Amino acid sequence: QPIQKIIDNYKPGITELFLMDTVAKASADDSFLNKKNMYTEQNVDEALANHIASLDIKTAACDLVQVAKELNLDVTQVAAAYFMFGEELGFDWLRNQAEMVETSDHWDRLAVNSILGDLQDQQKILTRTALNGCKDKDCVTSAEKWITDNQSSTERVKHLLDDFQHAGVLNVTKMGFAARQIRNVVVD
């Protein structure tokens, strides 16, 4: 496809997602506001703090628009479900921990980046699967139903991540194992 056609296809949805109110509403937890407040407390200009705090949604924007288009849903509703999964199943926590993983060499950093890419793909696949057939206003309800219907698998992942949270520093090996367990839930 010509690049302009791709830009024109994604631009309306991405523009809608980049509105700061959308970012705050799409986040299933207080992570956006906590990040924003952390930066503003350090005397970062509020507009820049908003921008930095919203980077999570911005990295997922194309995936969110793609799923919304495929399923003919409102992109903000898809985003709300996507970020609910991120919080509920540990995608968000693992991504945040990846920033702090100590890597001994270039290959470890590549492994961490690969795991991050896999997590984003899995979160998109899960969102698409859970929202297939839902109507705009019940995307979060459909996502919650998916979690309830897959409770034993999701609880297993939550317990694993809880163990990792209490065990101290996350390393590349643990991160890869956790990502694999999440993948198993997504493809079950």
Question: Explain this structure to me?
Answer:
The protein is mainly α and 188 residues long. 80% of the residues lie in helices and 0% in strands. The radius of gyration is 17 Å and the shape is globular. The protein starts with a helix and ends with a helix. The mean pLDDT is 87.
Q: Tell me roughly what share of residues is in helical segments.
A: over 70%
| Gross geometry | globular
Write down the Rg: 17 Å
* Major sheet: none
**Number of helices, where a helix is a run of at least 4 consecutive DSSP H or I residues:** 11
- Helix/strand order: HHHHHHHHHHH
Which percent range describes the beta-strand content? Answer: under 5%
Quantity of strands, as a count: 0
Spans of at least 5 consecutive residues with low confidence: none
Structural class: mainly alpha
The overall average pLDDT, rounded, is 87
What features would you highlight for this structure?
mainly alpha; globular
Question: Care to give the gist of this entry?
Answer:
With 188 residues, this protein is mainly alpha-helical. It is built from eleven helices and no strands. It has helices at residues 3-17, 20-26, 31-41, 46-53, 55-71, 75-88, 91-98, 106-131, 139-149, 151-167, 172-187.
Question: Layout of helices and strands, plus pairs?
Answer:
Layout: H1 3-17, H2 20-26, H3 31-41, H4 46-53, H5 55-71, H6 75-88, H7 91-98, H8 106-131, H9 139-149, H10 151-167, H11 172-187
Helix pairs in contact: 1-5, 3-4, 5-6, 5-8, 6-8, 6-9, 7-8, 8-11, 10-11
